[in-house]
Design goal:
Helices cover about 25% and strands about 20% of the residues. Strands 5-12-13-14-11-17 form a six-stranded antiparallel β-sheet, with helices on one face. A five-stranded parallel β-sheet has the order 6-3-2-10-18, covered by helices on one side. A four-stranded mixed β-sheet has the order 1-9-8-7. It has about 550 residues and is an alpha/beta fold. A hairpin with a 5-residue loop joins strand 15 and strand 16. It starts with a strand and ends in a 9-residue tail after the last helix. Helix 1 packs parallel to helix 11.
C-alpha cells in the first residue's frame, strides 16, 4: 500500500457536486485530489446519430449500473425496491446521462414541516441558496426564459430557451384551455454556442450521452477548468473505505487502482460526492471499532430515509405530426400547477410536470416484461411505428417523503469486482405518493385530452426512474437527528463533508441537480472562507 503526497482536500466522486468542489477549492489555492472509479468519456463515445443508437442505450449506455455492468460500475441489489437505481460512474457522473432539466427548488420545499406538518424543515432556505443558483445557472449555460410566475423571483438565464417545438405548442394550447400554468422548460443544454459548447442539434438522446457537447455535463463545464487550476483527477480509482486517526478525524481513503493495487490517499479534509447510494455505502463500509455503526453515523441515519422521484407518465397520441421524435430530451415545457399542497386532494406536497419528446423507433415497439409479446408484432408493429412523431409525454416528478424504512444498506451476499460489499436498496412507495400518482395521472390525462390527444398510454410508476437518489445522509442542526450540518460538515467527524444528494432533508418535487450543485458550491465556499478555523488531519 502506497501513500500519495498529501493534498489539502480529497474528493470522492467526480460528478455534479465533486466537480463543483474541485473547481471552487482549486481556484482558491487548495491542493485538491479527486478519486473517481470511472473514466473520461468524449462525445464520439456516444451513439446518437449512429445506426446503433437505440440498441447501445439498452446496454452500454443504459442508465442502470446493474444492466450496464461496466468495469467502473458496482452492483446495487434492487430486488426489494419499486424502482431501479440509475447512475453513471465516470468523470461528470450522472450529468453525463441526465436529461439536463435545470430547475431550482421552490421556497416551500425548505419549510415542509412548518407548512404541511410532515417531514422536517431544512436548516437553510431558498434565499440562502438563491445566489448560488444564480451563479451556477450562468456558469452552466442554461437555456431558459425569465419571468416564470411560479417563482417569487425573476431569475435570468444566459441563453434563450430551446424551441418548444410543435408538440410544445399543442400541449401549451391544451394547458391554456384548462387555465393551468406552463412555462418553457429551463435546460442545461445550450440553445446557442456557449463557452466552446455548440448549440443543441436535437438528436433527442440526452439520456444516453450528448454526442456534441451541447449538454452541460460537468466533465465539460467544470473539470477541465479545475484541472487547469491545479486539481488532480485520478480516474479508475475505486474507494473502499475511509481511514481515521485516534482523534476521530478522517485521514483519507483507501482505494484500488485499475490493476487492483490498494493505495492510501491521505488528505487534511475529505469530501464525499458519491451520490445517495455510493456515499452511505462508503460510510457504512468504513465501520471500525472506533465507528461500529459506520463512519459519521452516531445518529443512525446513514443510509436511512432514502428518497427518489417516482416518475408517473401519461403519453398522448395525436392525429397530427408533432415532430416529437426530435430532441432535446430535456423538457420542452414544465408546469408547477399542482406543485403546492392542497389538502382537499387527500395528500400533501405535489409534483413538477415536464413535457418530453419521444425519439427513437425501438421505444415505440419495446416489449414490456409481463405483457403478451404478440402485442408488438404484425399490425400492432406498424400501428406503433406510425406513432413516431405523434407521441409525447407529460411526466410528473412525484415528491417523495422521507421514510426511515426506505434505505440503503450493505448487501451481505454481494460484492463488487474488488470484493467491497455492495449496496442493497430497499424502497417501498408510500401511501402519500400513491395518492399523488393517481391524482396526477388524472390531471395529465385531462391535459392531453384538452390538447387533442386521440389515445392515451398511462404508466403509473416507471420502474427505471431512480435517477434522483436523496436523503441518506441528511443535513440538520441537531447531531442526534442528522448526519451533517447546513454547510455539509459531518457532526461526528469535523473534517469530513458530504455534498451530494444524500444531504437532502426532503426530496422537493423538482429535478435535484441545480440544488445539489448549489448546496455544494455554498458549502465549499464556506469551507474556503473559514480555512483557518477548519480542523484537518495531521
Amino acid at each position: 500500500m502506497s501513500n500519495h503526497d498529501k493534498p489539502d482536500v480529497l474528493i470522492v466522486g467526480a460528478g455534479a457536486s465533486g466537480a463543483v468542489a474541485a473547481l471552487e477549492l482549486a481556484g482558491r489555492g487548495f491542493r485538491v485530489v479527486c478519486l473517481e472509479q470511472g473514466d473520461w468519456t468524449i462525445p464520439d463515445d456516444f451513439t446518437a446519430g449512429k445506426p446503433e443508437w437505440e440498441l447501445a442505450r439498452l446496454k452500454r449506455w443504459n442508465s442502470s449500473p446493474n444492466i450496464r455492468a461496466a468495469v467502473a460500475d458496482y452492483p446495487v441489489d434492487s430486488s426489494d425496491s419499486a424502482v431501479e437505481p440509475l447512475m453513471f460512474n465516470g468523470v461528470g457522473g450522472s450529468t453525463v446521462l441526465y436529461a439536463g432539466h435545470w430547475v431550482r427548488a421552490l421556497p416551500s420545499d425548505f419549510r415542509v414541516k412548518t407548512l404541511d406538518g410532515v417531514a422536517d424543515d431544512w436548516p437553510l432556505t431558498y434565499e440562502d441558496l438563491r445566489p448560488f443558483y444564480d451563479e451556477l445557472t450562468h456558469f452552466m449555460g442554461v437555456s431558459g426564459l425569465a419571468g416564470d410566475p411560479a417563482y417569487p423571483d425573476e431569475h435570468s438565464f444566459p441563453l434563450p430557451p430551446l424551441p418548444i417545438g410543435e408538440y410544445g405548442r399543442v400541449a401549451a394550447r391544451g394547458m391554456n384551455k384548462l387555465g393551468w400554468h406552463w412555462w418553457p422548460g429551463p435546460n442545461a443544454i445550450a440553445s446557442r454556442t456557449f463557452d466552446h459548447r455548440p448549440a443543441c442539434q436535437r438528436f433527442g438522446a440526452c439520456e444516453s450521452g450528448c454526442p456534441t457537447g451541447a449538454k452541460a455535463s460537468t466533465d465539460f463545464t467544470h473539470w477541465r477548468k479545475a484541472i487547469a487550476a491545479g486539481a488532480i483527477l485520478r480516474t479508475g480509482a475505486r474507494v473502499a473505505r475511509l481511514t481515521f486517526d485516534k482523534a476521530g478525524l478522517v485521514t483519507g481513503a483507501e482505494y484500488f487502482d485499475r490493476s487492483g493495487t490498494l493505495h492510501h490517499q491521505a488528505a487534511g479534509v475529505t469530501v464525499l460526492a458519491a451520490n445517495g447510494i455510493g456515499t452511505p455505502r462508503l460510510l457504512l463500509n468504513s465501520a471500525s471499532s472506533q465507528f461500529p455503526d459506520g463512519a459519521a453515523n452516531s445518529s443512525g441515519l446513514v443510509g436511512k430515509r432514502l428518497m427518489t422521484h417516482l416518475l408517473t407518465s401519461v403519453y398522448g397520441i395525436y392525429d397530427d405530426e408533432l415532430g416529437s421524435h426530435l430532441g432535446p430530451t430535456g423538457q420542452s415545457l414544465q408546469s408547477l400547477q399542482f406543485y403546492e399542497t392542497d389538502v382537499d386532494r387527500g395528500f400533501v406536497r405535489g409534483a413538477k410536470w415536464n413535457l418530453m419528446s419521444a425519439p427513437g423507433l425501438i421505444r415505440h415497439n419495446a416489449w414490456a416484461a409481463g405483457t403478451d409479446w404478440r402485442s408488438t408484432m404484425g399490425q400492432a408493429f406498424h400501428r406503433r411505428l406510425r406513432r413516431a412523431g405523434r407521441y409525447t409525454e407529460w411526466g410528473a416528478t412525484i415528491e417523495d417523503l422521507p421514510e426511515e424504512h426506505n434505505e440503503v444498506v450493505l448487501d451481505p451476499a454481494c460484492t463488487d469486482s474488488h470484493g467491497i460489499p455492495a449496496a442493497k436498496m430497499r424502497y417501498v412507495i408510500g401511501e402519500n405518493s400513491r395518492k399523488m400518482i393517481g391524482f396526477h395521472i388524472d390531471r395529465m390525462s385531462e391535459a392531453h385530452q384538452a390538447a387533442g390527444a386521440v389515445e392515451l398510454d398511462v404508466f403509473p410508476v416507471v420502474r427505471d426512474s431512480g435517477w434522483h437518489l436523496m436523503g441518506t445522509a441528511r443535513m440538520g442542526n441537531d447531531p442526534e437527528t442528522s448526519v451533517v450540518d447546513q454547510f455539509c460538515r459531518s457532526h461526528d467527524v469535523p473534517n469530513l463533508f458530504v455534498i451530494d444528494g444524500s444531504v437532502f432533508v426532503t426530496s422537493t418535487g423538482v429535478n435535484p441537480t441545480a440544488t445539489i450543485m448549489a448546496i455544494a458550491l455554498r458549502s465549499m465556499r464556506h469551507l474556503a472562507s473559514h480555512r483557518a478555523e477548519q480542523r484537518t488531519a495531521s
